[in-house]
């Protein structure tokens, strides 16, 4: 019995000694962040910013690996199947939380096959209308649309994208009938709204603000909880007529399920330090992006709440993948 107890105690002590060593010696080689979106988009841009600033404190290079396709499913599946050794991570967005309901047949489940690491930032959207639409405010737009159900349309960068889901949430909460016109990317959608071929759209404030400032389009409301410093005179959807409305584009990091918790916590701390820096915060805010800092458990709860939020919209609007 004494020998058995001694052996068990020795095993526990050895285990305790091994676990911290993993976090202390990690990383011993370069890391990779898989971005399941095309180069040049927000996820790619901010993944590279993180990689640049993580390289110093981690003492290793960070490779950004763009793997777009199938509405983020291809790259995300590759990340899910990567070794859970702390060297591969996924740059994800709220496209992923929408896809949990929109794409039920995908080869992974977000909260089963990944571990939340840290959020990165969020950006507000801007609801714009072409000047030919006779509405000077959001309340006027809602009243106008209600007089002609199905008589107005809105553009998006594709089914299930944040631009599309922002429009569907607006329709549901405002009780209006507006026809969705999906495009294969935000550039085509934006061009057709600017050309007056489509009446309106929710677009990234960083991209669309200049068109509003130039008078090419009319900005009626922003989609966040507070007014954007980029367009401080434009009210939020919430204060302009649809109480409780919020829809943003946000980004975060996840790791394959089974990645050592000590590594996940270490990376959460390092990302938090970066996005909390005054210079980075100031630069991102100029671009219309707000840094996000959460613990891993808080980010886990945030993800689950977002999945639940968009599942209701996907089901109630009967949205189907392309």
Notes on the protein architecture:
The protein has 2 domains: 30-122 and 250-316, Bordetella uptake gene, domain 1 (D-Maltodextrin-Binding Protein, domain 2), CATH 3.40.190.150; 124-240, D-Maltodextrin-Binding Protein, domain 2 (3-Layer(aba) Sandwich), CATH 3.40.190.10. 48% of the residues lie in helices and 19% in strands. It is built from 13 helices and 10 strands. Strands 1, 2, 3, 4, 5, 6, 7, 8, 9 and 10 form a 10-stranded mixed sheet that branches. Helix 2 (42-58) links the parallel strand 1 (31-35) and strand 2. Helix 4 (94-102) packs across helix 13. The longest helix is centred in the first third of the chain and has 24 residues, at 2-25. The radius of gyration is 22 Å and the shape is globular. It starts with a helix and ends in a 6-residue tail after the last helix.
Topology, element by element:
Blueprint: H1 2-25, E1 31-35, H2 42-58, E2 62-66, H3 73-80, E3 88-93, H4 94-102, H5 110-113, E4 114-129, H6 138-147, E5 153-156, H7 162-174, E6 179-182, H8 186-194, E7 200-204, H9 205-213, E8 218-222, H10 237-240, E9 248-256, H11 261-275, H12 278-287, E10 289-291, H13 296-316
What attributes does this structure have?
single chain, D-Maltodextrin-Binding Protein, domain 2, 19% strand, globular, alpha/beta, 322 residues, ten-stranded mixed sheet
Terminus-to-terminus distance: 65 Å
Order of helices and strands: HEHEHEHHEHEHEHEHEHEHHEH
What percent of the residues sit in helical stretches (DSSP H or I)? 40-55%
> Spans with pLDDT under 50 lasting ≥5 residues?
4-9, 12-21
Indicate the CATH architecture of the largest domain. 3-Layer(aba) Sandwich
Q: How many beta-strand segments?
A: 10
- Please report which band the strand proportion falls in: under 5%, 5-15%, 15-25%, 25-35%, 35-45% or over 45%: 15-25%
> What is the CATH class of the largest domain?
Alpha Beta
The chain-level structural class is: alpha/beta
Apparent shape: globular
Please, what is the CATH homologous superfamily of the largest domain? Bordetella uptake gene, domain 1
Oligomer: single chain
Q: Output the CATH topology of the largest domain.
A: D-Maltodextrin-Binding Protein, domain 2
Radius of gyration: 22 Å
Mean pLDDT: 91
Number of domains: 2
Main β-sheet, in a few words?
10 strands, mixed
